[in-house]
């Protein structure tokens, strides 16, 4: 099944001519969106233990991911979804990765036959946004290998369509502006967390109890959204922490020729 990510929704009714684009302009925008959108096929992979029952599988690997006509993107996605979650070992083959994960469970079950615990590795590599300049992915992974609970994380990837390279903060901000970016982000974080400017951060997991941004961010048309996964800055019970920085707060420190320069506050 071939999909196209649509980045605009057109109104079926109009309130007034002044509040909406002319029909011809809308048609041209739709054509441009279709032109800038990379087509892809969604692949649904599933593998489990040989003795799996219909209503109960002891261990399974499930992956939903896109395949493009761009080899560089496909290799990038493959490297991520085939890296084993418990040791970071790359396999570069989804079947091999699934077999390794399931075999690890079978070894565990052989040593502890009475254990009711199962294994689960569930991945969803989805397209979050794309335009003529870049494509963004949200990679969601859930892993359970025993214990009180599994771990679900989300990792963002912003990929430039020019060379298909990962867009990092250094590509958007000069090193001299990173201090300012961090200060702006900390103000938003403290307000969001209900903290005063002089409150200590000793209840968080920041290095040296000093606020810092990570590289897990996604580019949107309104601003940058950063995401801290469980255990990164807070205990598991608090879940993920999102931090949104609108462009209006950082427009003065964005590189003039960066991929963000087209977005207006």
TrEMBL record:
Pfam families of this UniProt entry?
A: DUF3298, PdaC
Residue ranges annotated for the Deacetylase PdaC domain, each copy included? 61-151
Q: Which InterPro entries match?
A: DUF3298 (IPR021729), PdaC (IPR025303), PdaC/RsiV-like_sf (IPR037126)
Q: Where on the tree of life does the source sit, at the highest rank?
A: Bacteria
Q: The DUF3298 domain covers which part of the protein?
A: 170-248
User: Which protein are we looking at?
Assistant: DUF3298 and DUF4163 domain-containing protein
Per the UniProt record, the source organism is Pedobacter aquae
């Amino acid at each position: 099944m071939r999909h196209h990510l649509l980045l605009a929704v057109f109104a079926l009714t109009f309130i007034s001519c002044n509040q909406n684009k002319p029909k011809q302009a809308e048609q041209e925008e739709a054509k441009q969106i279709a032109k800038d959108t990379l087509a892809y096929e969604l692949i649904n992979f599933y593998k489990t233990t040989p003795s799996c029952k219909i209503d109960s599988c002891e261990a399974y690997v499930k992956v939903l991911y896109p395949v493009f006509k761009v080899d560089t993107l496909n290799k990038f996605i493959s490297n991520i979804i085939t890296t084993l979650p418990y040791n970071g070992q790359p396999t570069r083959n989804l079947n091999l990765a699934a077999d390794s994960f399931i075999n690890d469970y079978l070894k565990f079950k052989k040593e502890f036959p009475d254990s009711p615990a199962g294994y689960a590795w569930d991945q969803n590599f989805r397209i979050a946004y794309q335009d003529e300049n870049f494509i963004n992915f949200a990679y969601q992974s859930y892993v359970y290998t025993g214990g009180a609970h599994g771990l679900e994380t989300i990792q963002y990837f912003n990929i430039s369509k020019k060379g298909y390279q990962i867009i990092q903060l250094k590509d958007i901000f000069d090193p001299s502006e990173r201090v300012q970016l961090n200060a702006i982000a900390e103000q938003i974080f403290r307000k969001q967390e209900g903290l005063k400017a002089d409150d200590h951060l000793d209840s968080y997991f920041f290095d040296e109890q000093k606020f810092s941004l990570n590289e897990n961010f996604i580019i949107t048309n309104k601003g940058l959204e950063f995401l801290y996964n469980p255990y990164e800055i807070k205990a598991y019970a608090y879940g993920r922490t999102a931090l949104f920085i609108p462009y209006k707060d950082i427009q003065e420190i964005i590189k003039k020729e960066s991929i963000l320069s087209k977005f207006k506050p």
